[in-house]
Amino acid sequence: MTRHSSLVTRHLSLIPSITTAARRYLVYTALLTGGLAISALFFNLLLLALGYDQQSLHLPFLGAWSILGLMHSLPAFAAALSSLPLWWLVSRYGPRFGLVGGALLAAASLLGMALWPTPVSMLAWACLGGPAAVLFQVSAAPFMMRHSGPHERAMLFSLSAGLMIGVAGLGSLVGGFLPALLGAWLDVPTQSAMVYRSTFGVAACFVLLAPIPLLRLPPDGAVLPETPTRQLHVGNELRKLWDFGRAALPFVVSPLLISCGAALLIPFLNLYLRQRFGAPDAALGFIFAMIGIATGAATLLAPWLARRFGAMGSVVLTQALAIPCLLLLAVAPNLWLAAGIALTRAALMNMAAPLYEAYAMEHTAEAARPIVIGLINGAFSAGYIIGPALSAQVQRDYGFGPLFIATACLYAAGAWANYLIFLRPRRHCRL
Q1: To the nearest whole number, what is the mean pLDDT of the chain?
Q2: Do the beta carbons of residue 55 and residue 119 sit within 8 Å?
Q3: How does it sit in the membrane (predicted)?
Q4: What are phi and psi of 90, to 5 degrees?
Q5: 3-state secondary structure of 241
Q6: Could you tell me the CA-to-CA distances from 229 to 26, 226, 233, 235, 366 in Å, in that order?
Q7: Are the CB atoms for 418 and 258 separated by under 8 Å?
Q8: Which of 113, 205, 363, 372 has a CA-to-CA distance to 395 between 20 and 30 Å?
Q9: SS3 (DSSP) at 142
Q10: 378: closest CA among 225, 245, 211?
Q11: DSSP state of 386
């Protein structure tokens, strides 16, 4: 008990040493995450209210696909297409540029979906959210590395991850009551498309406020070192890209597998709870709030787990323990038991995520960090290019059962890949 208390005390004592820039980043993260959490809670419900779950869109050479699935898949595709140009921009102008630009694009995406909800325009505005996410993903970790020292770095990464998950939970809790308030104010039904569109407008306001704390910071400059002539040479840039990409390869295998599994199920978890248990808006908001808060609190245990099991050992352990919870969620007999299982699964699956990023950053040169973290997050997003579209088709024909099984298998493969790549070689070296 005393040993654990001293670890917590030493852990918390590092908080005052966090730099001003890092504190402003945490405020930015809270505002951005809160707004995005509100929109995420009601995204699928807005599509249901508009009738897009039953409509299909014919794509050239690909045939008809559910609009519900395309709304999740096409933003991921847009993110993949834009990732390299956006990485170059962040490398040239620094991570603060990427954080501010990502928030502005995200706000535009939310406002566009609130104001122009036709199928094609909704798809276009949703796609804008893909590059917005890429800008945040390739900028956040380099920004934290630049504005933290080795002693408080694990604390900053854990605080950031915990804050994102915790604020997402609070955003879901507040958001759960928004439809009733907005419905009464607008004098329209609570579960109408107009109410859900209005929640997107509220979310956009929070996201627009996010960049303000960062605007007062001085420009942080390029991540890549400047050449004497300050001239971009395409050959050199491509060579750097190739070298940095090779350095990132061991870190993208597990995220890619987990992404393929998560994309089949996690975006539609609110639909699963509504369609199977009839969960109302307020209940969904409360459930996702509790999931977020519990997961955020669990994430703060990541540094303690790292001391006890090592960074990668903690990642493998928590990922493996989350798999039985996923299977239990598929057979839960009532809403609140399902909510408790979902809470446990999310906490286990996400609590060691900051350790994975910090581990990758510590084993990467500073100039390579934007592309490495970009490829890691790109791998986490790659499954979403096709996964949600396939999932929507399976939901129509077979329900959610096959999706739970497929997700569990891919999660297991991701945890096993981390063990084989990072833990097993060390074990043989010690032997």
Answers
A1: 81
A2: yes
A3: Multi-pass membrane protein
A4: -65, -40
A5: helix
A6: 36, 8, 10, 15, 21
A7: no
A8: 113
A9: helix
A10: 245
A11: T
Q: Note the pLDDT of residue 79.
A: 85
Both tokens of residue 267? 């975006």
* Helix%, strand%, coil% for the chain, nearest 5: 85, 0, 15
Q: Which whole-number Å values give the CA distances from 269 to 126, 164, 386, in the listed order? A: 19, 19, 17
Structural domains of the chain ordered from first start: 16-216+245-430 (1.20.1250.20)
Q: pLDDT tens, 140-176?
A: 888 888 877 777 677 788 788 778 877 887 888 888 8
Cα separation, 325 vs 228, whole angstroms = 55
Q: For residues 67 and 58, give the distance between their C-alpha atoms in angstroms, rounded to a whole number.
A: 9
- pTM above the 0.85 mark? no
CB atoms within 10 A of CB 290: 18
66: phi then psi, degrees, rounded to nearest 5: -60, 135
